Amino acid sequence: MHGCGDKPKRIAFGVAPLGIISIGIVPMGVVSVGVVPMGVISLGVVGMGVLNACVVGMGVLVAGVNVMGVWWAGLDGMGPRRLGAPPPALHQHHHSSAGHTPPHLMAYPTREEALEQARRVGCSGAHAMGSRWMPCSEHPR
Prior knowledge:
- The chain has 141 residues and is mainly β.
- It has one helix spanning 111-121; strands at residues 9-14, 18-24, 28-34, 38-78, 81-82, 126-129, 132-135.
- It has a five-stranded parallel beta sheet with strand order 1-2-3-4-5, with no helix packed on it. A two-stranded antiparallel ribbon has the order 6-7.
């Protein structure tokens, strides 16, 4: 374990290792691999960094299960740009028994389209949902 003023090692292992390449429980460094990695490049379970490949990650370019980033790929996530397939127009937790999607639950590529739909369904405003827009200023419950 290192103290606050210690110089980072080139390669560090352990609990909270500080190094250019860090491997351990809470590794910190340029390249971090471990349980809760924090580094420019982070690989692990719960990561924070510029480039992440983690189960749960937050950064600029992120891949994982539940992520948040400028560019992201995963089962669930948020950020301006989803990599891969375009986001669905209907969120998975909204279902209709008639087999069609109610207009106020649709997501649109532009804010203007969502505002127009809001006027049609009798609400005002629009709200962002990932990289898309939904009618009404608040998300329906």
